[in-house]
Every structure is written in C-alpha cells, then in structure tokens.
Amino acid sequence: MSSSTSKPLINLLRGWPSTSLLPASLVKRAADTALTTPSIAHPGLLYGPDSGHPNLRKSIAAWLTDFYHPQEPVRDDRICISGGASQSLGCLLQVFSDPIYTRAIWISSPAYMLAFRIFEDAGFHGKLRSVPEDDEGIDVEFLRREIQKTEQEHRGDRDSPSMLKPKRPWSKIYRHVIYVVPNHSNPSSVSMSLERREHLVRLAREFDCLVVCDDVYDFLQWPASTESGDSGLRQCTLPRVVDIDRVLEGGAEGPGRDGFGNVASNGSFSKICGPGLRTGWVQGTRKLAYGVSQAGTTRSGGAPSQLTSTYVSLLLEWGELQEHVYGTLQPALAARYRTMVSAIEKHLVPLGVTYAQPGKEVAGGYFVWLSLPEPLKGAEVARLGREQQNLIVAEGEMFEVPGDSKRIKFPRDVRVCFAWEAEDMLEQGIARLGQVILEAQRRGNMADGIQRETDENDRKKTTMVEGGANYW
Ligand SMILES: Cc1ncc(COP(=O)(O)O)c(C=O)c1O
Fold first, then answer.
1. Of 9, 177, 220, 423, which has the highest C-beta tally within 10 A?
2. Is 112 in the pocket of ligand 1 (CB under 6 A)?
3. Distance 240 CA to ligand 1 centre (A)
4. pLDDT of 85-110, one tens digit each?
C-alpha cells in the first residue's frame, strides 16, 4: 500500500511557471498605469482592432528584432496578437486548413499533448500523423517519404479537390500542416539544427505545407554548463523557422510565390510573464498575419486579450519585461535546470537512466526527457511514483499522437519539469524517482530469479504476469 501519506506532494508533471517567478508587482504597476490613463484604458476596455493592440504589435516587433537579429527587422504588420499559442493554433487551423482538403497534420513526436485536441476540434480526428525526431529535431526525410505516400494516395483528387470551406481572399488552404516546437521542445527538450530548419522550409514549399512553430520557449535559454557563467542569453542562437522562410532562396514573398509563406511562429507571454494573461502573438508574412486576424471569432469579438495587451505593451515599452526575462527568469530557470540535472546524475544515471542533455551548449525550456532502463515502463514508474512516493511525473505515452495506427511510441520514457516545483523540491523529487526505479528493478530481479529457478528445477511452465518478469 501507499507509503506516501507522510510525504509532501512533488509534482514534476505540471508545466507551469513557479508562482515564485510570476512578476505580479510588475503587472500590477502596468495595470495601474493602463487603467488610470484614459487614452490606454478606453481602447483597452473596448473591442480591439482585428490584428490586436497596435502598440503591443510594435513593441513585440522591436523585441523580436533585438532578440533574433533577423536579416530584415521584424515589422508590426507581420504580427497578429493572439490569446496565447493554443488559441492561435486554433485560429490558424480555422483560417488555413480544411478537414477535407488538408491531407494530414504531421506532428514531431514526442509531442505537446494538449495540441492534439486542438487539431481534432478543427476536424482532423484520424488525420494526425507522428513524425520521429532525433537530436537535430524532426526527421525531415521520414516526413518527405510519408507526405509523398499520402500524395500518391490522393493522386486522383488533384483535379477536383473537395473542400468544406469557402474561398476567401485573405486566406489560403494548405494541403498539409506540420507542427513543431523548434527550440527546447516540450516534451523532449530537443532543439532543431539550422540545417534541419532549412530542409523543413524547402519541404514545406515543395508540398504546400503550413509549418506551425510553437516558439514559446525561445526566450528561456542559457549556457548548458556553468563555465560560461550563470547569466542567460539576450540573443537567440538560431534563427526561427519563420525567419528562414522569409529570406531563403528568394524568400516567402519573392517572385513566383503567393506571399502567404509556409511558416507561422506562435509566441506567447505564458512562459515569460504569466499564462493567466492569455496573451501571445503569431508572426508570419504580412498576408498570413492579416489572414489569421480575419478568423470569424476575431472579426466578431475583436482582437483577443485586448485589455491584458495594454499591460504587456507597457512592460515591453518600459523594458521591464525584457529585464524580468534576462535578469530573473533565465538565471532562475538555469539554476533549477542545473539542480535537476545534477540530481539526475546522482540518483538516476547510476540506475541506467539516460537523458538527452549532456554535451549540448545551450539548454533551455522547462523539461528534461528521461529514458528508463529496460525493462521498466514509464506508465508503471509513474503509477508507482504516485502510490509509493507521492510523486507525479509524466509518462511517455501521454506524448504519443492519438489515432495514428503507425504512431511512434514512448513506453520507456518519462518527462520531468523543473519550472513548477520550488527549487529545493527538485532534488528531492528526482531522489524519490530514483527510489521508485530502484525498487522496481529489485522486484524485477527477484521475479526473474524465481522464474529461472522454476524453469531449471522442474521445467514447469510458469507465467508470472503480475509482479513477475512481465510486470513492466
Ligand atoms: C509547446 C507548447 N505550446 C503551447 C503551449 C501553451 O501555450 P499558451 O499558454 O500560450 O497557450 C505550451 C504550454 O505548455 C507548450 O509547451
């Protein structure tokens, strides 16, 4: 039975920012200013323009230019304010996909699990496909082969493609949608290499794909080793996929192209300020940014998050949000990451657990992805963690793409988050996970021993399903 009752709960599943990192006093100051200044308060409390609060669009564009140093500065006409990356994904699908015409949603796997329902709500139940990733990100060659197969299957519909949605001048319907988290992915923490990003853009152009990038962890990066100092990174080390699309081989708006481009970048204030703000942005070509602003729900209600946009806009204009990210969040998350990684080295690596981080120059995001030694299973370890140690971790199966008969599976993996729990609970959480794994290995060994003895002594067939060799 449970031995956990006396232990405080440690939740390493929850992918939220720690309450100690929420900038409540900054937001309060911005809210006070916004609500006591009629020229800010009145538009903030009314319906907003379809593309969102104009000052926020400008401030975001300036910050993105500063952080990514793209070849061309980012301008506000490429930005549309969203209600966060999740809502933005829903709006992008409303405007740019069609459940009949769009062949499939290709999802880099393991994948952010809460995106699945957004795709299914948009009519893509049964059309989600998993694509493996390696340590350079999504496997573009695998994706190419699978898209080619799908195109072959639909060869006949090329001349008479059916579509549920009417044609609109502000939109286009893509044949495929690809979903990736290029930097410090949730859950694997993998970042895509530059070469992979370029290949992805070329593939997207060749097969009429919209690549939706959740770029929500980009501002949360730091040197992986302490030798490079403890401060974070004021500049992103790699261009975003959307920046590559803008300039590669004539660029998304170059001659012969329709100007919509093939990439949408979802940014969010959830991880860098507070998810309760429900404010983010989407960036693409001018046509794409305008198109998404024309989603029916936005046309009717005006831009999402209009009031909170005024707060965030002030924080960016004052430079306070940037300083919060560079001066508070990055160092705090870097310290948490290092605490967790050294606990993993101490408590889990000796048991045979592996993880993806060692050797990388830049770490970031919220998560560490662990692979358990054979024959342990993530789901079983997660269950025992809850029962024996009052510990919650996310088993790999949660991140498998649903409804894909050939789906890529993660039975031996577990995701742990270093952003939510108090820092001093991280080492304890990993130590408890070590206890669970050790206990499971002992029980597995004992069961193996019994199995061998039985086999040798009387060659009787013994099936030890529960608590035996097959237990994991
Ligand atoms: C990859 C990814 N996309 C989107 C989200 C949700 O973002 P938002 O709060 O902006 O909707 C998360 C949150 O965990 C995430 O990890």
1. 177
2. yes
3. 17
4. 999 999 999 999 999 999 999 999 99
Whether residue 67 contacts residue 234, with contact meaning beta carbons closer than 8 Å, is answered with yes
Find out whether 3 and 273 touch, Cβ atoms under 8 Å.
no
* Tokens (6 digits) for 139: 């496997």
Residue 84 near ligand 1, beta carbon < 6 Å? yes
Q: For Cα atoms 242, 275, 191, give the angle at the middle one, nearest 5 degrees.
A: 40
Q: Find tokens 């923490």 and name the residue.
A: 189
Pick the CATH number of 22-321 from 3.40.50.1370, 3.30.70.330, 3.40.640.10, 3.40.50.150: 3.40.640.10
CATH classification number, 10-20+323-458, choose in 3.90.1150.10, 1.10.1760.20, 3.40.50.620, 3.40.50.720: 3.90.1150.10
| Ligand 1 binding pocket includes 218 (Cβ within 6 Å) | no
User: What would the two tokens of residue 292 be?
Assistant: 């998404």
Spans of all domains in the chain:
10-20+323-458, 22-321
Please work out whether the CB of residue 86 comes within 6 Å of at least one atom of ligand 1: yes
- Is the shortest distance between the CB of 280 and ligand 1 below 6 Å? yes
